[in-house]
Design goal:
It is globular, with a radius of gyration of 13 Å. Helix content is 39%, strand content 27%. It has helices at 42-50, 57-67, 72-88; strands spanning 11-14, 18-23, 26-31, 36-40, 55-56, 92-94. The strands form two sheets. Strands 5-1-6 form a three-stranded antiparallel beta sheet. Strands 2-3-4 form a three-stranded antiparallel beta sheet. The longest helix has 17 residues, at 72-88. Helix 2 packs across helix 3. It has three helices and six strands; from the N terminus they run E-E-E-E-H-E-H-H-E. The protein has a single domain, classed as Outer Surface Protein A, domain 3, CATH 3.90.930.60. With 96 residues, it is of the alpha+beta class.
Length: 96
């Protein structure tokens, strides 16, 4: 799997090699190639919903800032970190 440095212009989307479902506001994800399950809290599940279609980090950041009481710079840093972890897990891909 290719790794790309993620920044605010990066476009991310959920990988085709996973299945997911919502559970009481949270999300459960299964990475199909290695059979590992992942759990996302309410905010992670909200971000996951947005990543079902390609979206830039900047667009995600703006949506999160509008919905939650968070500083834009912090939201962007946290989103990049979250997406990097998801890419390494094979759950998200960067489409740039």
């Amino acid at each position: 799997m290719a790794y790309y440095e993620i920044d605010r212009a990066s476009k991310v989307v959920a990988s085709e090699d996973q299945v997911s479902c919502r559970l009481d506001g949270e999300a459960a994800l299964l990475q199909m190639s290695d059979g590992v399950y992942y759990g996302l809290d309410e905010l992670g599940a909200r971000i996951w919903d947005e990543m079902q279609e390609p979206i830039t980090i900047e667009e995600l950041r703006d949506r999160i800032v509008r919905e939650y009481d968070v500083d834009a710079d912090r939201a962007e840093r946290d989103l990049i970190e979250f997406c990097e972890k998801m890419v390494r897990a094979g759950l998200v891909r960067v489409t740039r």
